[in-house]
């Protein structure tokens, strides 16, 4: 998010914060990619893919190259390739991973009706000046309003993440935001849930991860573990009484402050006692938007991956 939208010395502008977050979230992804040697590589700064893009995001803002924002040099989609394209070339001369996808996102936010779409999404959630409620319709509306940026993934990872991040920001700025949609499930959330024993991966999946196999976003195991994560977090929300954004924030905080580690160590030992294995290695799924999932999976996804999801759970 830009410094102007994050300025806590001024009253919060919900539409501006949502617009900033939306443009950022839409570009968050594609940090793992396949190099010329066929092996997985990571676009990162100091171990963080998100930081790699956020540094670029702030550099674009400083140069007036974020579309849709005040004083932007981007007057429309036609300016994006010429003005933003060169900025996606890294210091080593290589283009940032998924450059064409990122340019397509910026073009969508450079369209003349992008602000109106964001305002409509915020208005739907607004109960009054200080209270907002986002539900699953909000998630679907985000995906529909920005089909390139948010609508290509049938599991709505980025579309689900946007209200969660808005809530996490606004709830620290005097607003009351609740989120009753779904959790944002990529390949990191399943990994976290597996590491503490919530998701039970099959021996085959564990071995593929241990072998550092590059997995396609439309791989059935990837689809199933993402769907299982959504189902698991929905149950966690119901059992704990926490909103989805609070569940997401709790996992994020636990990873950052180290409190997740004792749970991981306990889960690994318990799995060993039961003759199972928990892997702590990172999954390698090179994708920008999970757009490769074919329509044949949509009914399964919509049902929460039914038996496949339930079979992976250890919380019921």
Number of strands: 5
Return the domain count: 2
What percentage of amino acids are in beta strands? 5-15%
Described by strand count, sense and barrel closure, the largest sheet is: 3 strands, mixed
Q: Tell me the span between the first and last alpha carbons.
A: 38 Å
Mind sketching the topology for me?
Layout (H helix, E strand, L loop, with lengths): L2 H4 L7 H14 L4 E3 L5 E3 L6 H14 L17 H5 L14 H11 L4 H12 E3 L2 E4 L1 H10 L1 H4 L6 H14 L5 E4 L8 H8 L7 H8 L9 H21 L3 H14 L2 H14 L24 H5 L3 H7 L4
Parallel strand pairs: 4-5
Antiparallel strand pairs: 1-2, 3-4
Helix pairs in contact: 2-6, 2-9, 6-7, 7-9, 9-13, 12-13, 12-16
Question: What does this protein structure show overall?
Answer:
- This protein is mainly α and 316 residues long.
- The chain folds into two domains: 3-179; 188-312, no CATH class.
- Helices cover 52% and strands 5% of the residues.
- The chain has 16 helices and five strands.
- It has helices at residues 3-6, 14-27, 49-62, 80-84, 99-109, 114-125, 136-145, 147-150, 157-170, 188-195, 203-210, 220-240, 244-257, 260-273, 298-302, 306-312, and strands at residues 32-34, 40-42, 126-128, 131-134, 176-179.
- The strands form two sheets. Strands 3-4-5 form a three-stranded mixed beta sheet.
- Helix 12 packs across helix 13.
- It is globular and about 60 Å long.
- The two termini are 38 Å apart.
- Residues 296-316 have low confidence and may be disordered.
């Amino acid at each position: 998010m830009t410094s102007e939208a994050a300025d806590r010395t001024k009253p919060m502008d919900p539409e501006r914060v949502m617009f900033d977050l939306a443009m950022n979230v839409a570009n968050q992804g594609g940090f793992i990619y396949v190099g010329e040697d066929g092996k997985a590589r990571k676009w990162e700064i100091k171990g963080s893919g998100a930081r790699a893009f956020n540094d670029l995001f702030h550099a674009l803002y400083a140069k007036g190259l974020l579309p849709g924002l005040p004083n932007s040099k981007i007057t429309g989609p036609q300016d994006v390739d010429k003005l933003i394209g060169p900025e996606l070339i890294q210091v080593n001369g290589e283009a940032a991973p998924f450059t064409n996808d990122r340019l397509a996102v910026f073009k969508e936010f450079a369209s003349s009706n992008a602000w109106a779409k964001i305002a409509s999404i915020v208005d739907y959630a607004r109960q009054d000046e200080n209270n907002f409620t986002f539900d699953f319709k909000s998630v679907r509306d985000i995906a529909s309003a920005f089909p390139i940026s948010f609508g290509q993934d049938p599991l709505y990872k980025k579309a689900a993440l946007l209200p969660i991040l808005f809530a996490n920001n606004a709830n620290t700025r005097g607003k009351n935001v609740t989120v009753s949609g779904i959790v944002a499930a990529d390949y990191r959330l399943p990994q976290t849930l597996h590491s503490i024993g919530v998701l039970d991966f099959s021996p085959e999946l564990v071995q593929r991860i241990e072998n550092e196999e590059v997995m396609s976003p439309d791989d059935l195991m990837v689809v199933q573990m993402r769907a299982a994560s959504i189902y698991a977090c929905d149950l966690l929300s119901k059992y704990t009484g926490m909103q989805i954004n609070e569940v997401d924030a709790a996992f994020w905080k636990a990873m950052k402050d180290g409190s997740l580690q004792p749970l991981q160590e306990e889960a690994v030992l318990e799995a060993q006692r039961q003759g199972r294995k928990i892997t702590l290695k990172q999954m390698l799924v090179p994708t920008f938007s999970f757009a490769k999932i074919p329509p044949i999976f949509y009914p399964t996804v919509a049902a929460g991956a039914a038996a496949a999801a339930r079979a992976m759970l250890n919380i019921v």
